[in-house]
Amino acid sequence: MLSPSVGLSVPQALGDVEIDELTTARSPPGLVTLTLPAGLTFASTPSGVHEASNGLQVGPGLLSSSTVFWFPVTQAIRQRSGKVIVTGIGPCRPSAGVTKGRAG
pLDDT by residue (tens digit) across 27-45? Predict the structure, then answer.
């Protein structure tokens, strides 16, 4: 288990994440999840989720933990593939003051 002893570093702005479907088959409604790699946490909820093409519609995104962001697909695609763009991603990583410990 890792626990920061002096807080987290300053958030670093990342570029947008573009999610493209690779098939023209009908996409069912459901959830899309973005998980940060080990050692990073979301500083805040990404600022936007935008559907970019072909009738795909998504709802607002939420953080379910400090490392997992998700958003619902609310309208399935009826033709062709779709695209979603997630903006405002600013992860942090623990600062140099991280201490290692064992979970009790």
Answer: 567 888 999 988 888 888 8
What is the average pLDDT value for the chain, to the nearest integer? 75
Q: Residue 86, class by beta-carbon neighbours within 10 Å (0-12 exposed, 13-18 middle, 19+ buried)?
A: buried
Domain membership of residue 29 as a residue range: 2-100
Cβ contact 32:71 at 8 Å: yes
Can you give the three-state secondary structure of the chain, one letter per residue? Answer: CEEECCCECCCCCCCCEEEECCCCCCCCCEEEEEECCCCCEECCCCCEEEEEECCCEECCCEECCCCEEEEEEEECCCCCCCEEEEECCCEECECCCEEECCCC
pTM of the model: 0.69
- The answer, yes or no, to whether residue 52 has pLDDT greater than 80, is no
The rounded distance, in Å, linking the Cα atoms of 62 and 46 is: 8
